[in-house]
Amino acid sequence: MGTAPASETPLAYQVRDLEKRYQMGEVEVRALRGVSLDIRAGEFVVILGPSGSGKSTFLNIIGGLDAPSSGHVLFKGDDLSDYSERQRTFYRRLNIGFIFQFYNLMPNLTARENVELATEIARAPLPPDEALDLVRLAPRADHFPAQLSGGEQQRVAIARAIAKRPEVLLCDEPTGALDIETGKVVLNALSETSERLGTTLIVITHNAAIGGMADRVVHMRDGQVHDIVTNARRMSADALAW
Description:
alpha/beta; Rossmann fold; six-stranded mixed β-sheet; 6 helices; 10 strands; 27% helix; globular
């Protein structure tokens, strides 16, 4: 957690009137309906909502995986909304680390080698062993994914994401495939590494308990921001109950 007051912390994202529409046959689906949200650099934001609330669509757009139908997404003042596919790819490569529910590790590569894959496309990457040490997996660097537990595999995925030194970590249900205790280990690893590196951390989840770890909790419903709650104090993952 930073020491500067929120009002003095620069903005990572300014989202304004964001819309995403899909055509399914003759039916138009509005996945996002005028979403506006500011996210500050170094902030930990949890986005909560049921399936179909638009949270994954929102994450995909601010992560440069998809383009909005209308509205604007400014990253550090630069409008992503008009980016070409090539520009979005460059933006993702330089600025974003993704962590998903399923780990997507290469089964024939060791933990270290999986992390090395990310460092090959980064400008100033962390050494793979340093990234693994940040998530407390240095002793398992030479193990293959099949030799690791689910929680260890997810921590390798976190190490792979942070090895790029991204400015933003975007996490889509990072504990969805894990039991409670393993999920807490993974959440602690996410929180601790993002704080140490000063990374903006955005987690989308169905699990309301995880909101206790965040600076702010954004509740989405029917493609809109329904409510935003600021936590007076952030909890550790160990204090969560779900």
